[in-house]
TrEMBL record:
The lineage of its organism: Eukaryota, Metazoa, Chordata, Craniata, Vertebrata. Residues 1-243 form the Calpain catalytic domain. The keyword Calcium applies. Gene3D superfamilies: 2.60.120.380, Cysteine proteinases (3.90.70.10), EF-hand (1.10.238.10). The gene is LOC105300231. It comes from Pteropus vampyrus. The active site is at C7, H161, N185. InterPro entries: C2_III (IPR033883), Calpain_cysteine_protease (IPR022684), Calpain_domain_III (IPR022682), Calpain_III (IPR022683), Calpain_III_sf (IPR036213), EF-hand-dom_pair (IPR011992), EF_Hand_1_Ca_BS (IPR018247), EF_hand_dom (IPR002048). This is Calpain-12.
Length: 562
């Protein structure tokens, strides 16, 4: 297959062909140009928790008689071109598909969870991780990064290019064990020419049956290379572990446990940035995770990529003495690729995980719970990067945790999906529903009326000795002006506001003097709270300042309020 600038999609599609049942999920079988052909094809792609059916016609863009984008070496094979058209239709155009990461397409093809491993010369356990991942039908790719686009090196690799990882094998040369990786260039040509390439004489030292089983000498884009050479030339490995939807409801070893949450960061509301020390950080969406059962000892012995067989976060506890739970957290930015036409790209996003001590749980759903948040200890965190999918495999002790996904910059806006996976039991809830009030804090202390204010009340009340909404409007406009930091005119105290005050304090009736004394005490307290939290003295409040003011007044709706 060929396509310039779209190798991330090509490599993902090439990996998909390794597993027919995964391919048939995306490209339903029985579609062709015969037997009732109607000129349309349909494909299924996973999008943020749901499988979406995409229907396209058979018209493909060409230039000078050749397909402009993805095309197969076989002139009568069109499934890849049509799949690309369906993918482009889903995201708005072919143009927005230029540039990307394999994991994005991996996840859309499987509904799985994509993880990125940044390679070093001494990356431990990599070979075992790749072998384990491929055995579990994970999709695996590798990228050789470049600062100047795609270009071919002297040894046949293409920098700035994405490759599929299709196999692993250990061979013995005397007393030496050689770890080999099989890679595929999605172009279907241009291969590695270094050690263990198709023409390398090292193959002659192997037994004939091994050589015949492993070596295919043709220009098909697929080749073997030794692990140490791989680490020298490639920068990242991307692994997409299959989700429970693909593996089925009851894989070996028990059922799956998964929670999916849909959310959004909104400027001035709950986009608080990524720095826990910042006041606004705790306005971010928050999810409480409870891990109930530790992994079995044999799970711990699988190495740092246990469970799904992909890149681990913390690795097992030393000696396996401390019981821990493996949980995979996946954060996805929704619907951002289609915004490329407007000049927007993926935000830099990630998440923090904080531990909630047992002794704080009893106070968690009280009006004072917000004050507890800055004191929580961080248990883990993901990298913050400008990718659609950011995932991390965490190894945590059984207990209670707070997961806080965020954009790196306060005020950045995006839709997101947060998924939580484990093979052991867990519970997860979004912290956004608890509504509470501190009745003591809501009760304002009695403040006696000044003589002049009481006399003004009596003048406006007249013989009825009670105020209606128009008289209350006049009284407040006069009474509040000299005491306020921000002078108001009578028009600032609206008649509708006064009607609502009467509804709150006297259920819509007229206001007697003792009722006004109670109202005035509350207004004085609210004015003091407003002035305290209007820190820039602007006479207005943003949502963060308003949240703090409402909490000080005794109202709370958990971290998600406002």
């Amino acid at each position: 297959m060929h396509k310039t600038g779209n190798c991330w999609f090509l490599a993902a599609a090439a990996s998909l062909t390794l597993y027919p049942r995964l391919l048939w999920r995306v490209v339903p079988p029985g579609q062709g140009f015969r037997d009732g052909y109607a000129g349309v094809f349909h494909f299924q792609l996973w999008q943020f928790g749901n499988w979406v059916d995409i229907v396209v016609d058979d018209r493909l863009p060409v230039r000078e008689g050749k397909l402009m984008f993805v095309r197969s070496e076989q002139r009568n094979e069109f499934w890849a071109s049509l799949l690309e058209k369906a993918y482009a239709k889903l995201h708005g155009s072919y143009e927005v598909m230029r540039g990307g990461h394999m994991n994005e397409a991996f996840v859309d093809f499987t509904g799985g969870v994509g993880e990125v491993l940044y390679l070093r010369q001494d990356t431990p356990g990599l070979f075992s991780a790749l072998r384990h991942a491929l055995a579990k039908e994970s999709l695996v790719g590798a990228t050789a990064l470049s600062d100047r686009g795609e270009y071919r090196t002297e040894d046949g690799l293409v920098k700035g290019h994405a490759y599929s990882v299709t196999g692993t094998h250990k061979v013995s040369l005397g007393f030496t064990k050689v770890r080999l990786l099989r890679l595929r260039n999605p172009w279907g040509r241009v291969e590695w020419t270094g050690a263990w390439s198709d023409s390398c004489p090292r193959w002659d030292a192997l037994p004939a049956e091994w050589r015949d089983a492993l070596l295919v000498k043709k220009e098909d884009g697929e080749f073997w290379m030794e692990l140490r050479d791989f680490l020298c030339h490639f920068d990242t490995v991307q692994i997409c572990s299959l989700s429970p939807e693909v593996l089925g409801p009851h894989p070996a070893g028990g059922g799956w446990h998964i929670h999916t949450f849909q959310g959004r960061w909104v400027r001035g509301f709950n986009s608080g940035g990524s720095q826990p020390a910042a006041e606004t950080f705790w306005t971010n969406p928050q999810f409480r995770l409870t891990l109930l059962e530790p992994d079995d000892e044999e799970d711990n012995e699988e190495g740092p990529w246990g469970g799904w067989g992909a890149a681990g976060a913390n690795g097992p506890a030393r000696g396996g003495r401390v019981p821990k739970c493996t949980v995979l957290l996946s954060l996805i930015q929704r619907n951002r690729r289609c915004l490329r036409a407007q000049g927007l790209t993926y935000l830099t996003v990630g998440f923090h995980v904080f531990q909630i001590p047992e002794e704080l749980l009893s106070r968690w759903d009280t009006p004072h719970s917000r004050a507890l948040l800055p004191g929580l200890l961080r248990a883990d965190r993901s990298p913050f990067c400008a990718r659609r999918d950011v995932s991390r495999r965490c190894r945590l002790r059984p207990g209670h945790y707070l997961v806080v996904p965020s954009a790196a910059r306060a005020g950045d806006e995006a839709d997101f999906t947060l998924r939580i996976f484990s093979e052991r039991r867990h519970t997860a809830v979004e912290i956004d529903e608890a509504i509470s009030a501190d009745l003591h804090a809501l009760t304002a202390p009695y403040v006696p009326l000044e003589l002049g204010l009481e006399q003004l009340f009596k003048e406006l009340a007249g013989e009825e000795e009670e105020l209606g909404a128009p008289q209350l409007q006049a009284l407040l406009s006069i009474a509040l002006e000299p005491a306020s930091v921000h002078p108001r005119t009578p028009a600032d105290i609206g008649l509708r506001t006064c009607e609502q005050l009467l509804q709150c304090f006297v259920h819509g009736r007229s206001l007697a003097l003792h009722d006004f004394q109670q109202l005035w005490s509350h207004l004085q307290r609210w004015q003091a709270i407003f002035d305290k939290f209007d820190r820039d003295a602007s006479g207005t409040m943003n949502s963060h300042e308003l949240r703090l003011a409402l909490n000080a007044a005794g109202l709370d709706r958990g971290p998600g309020f406002l």
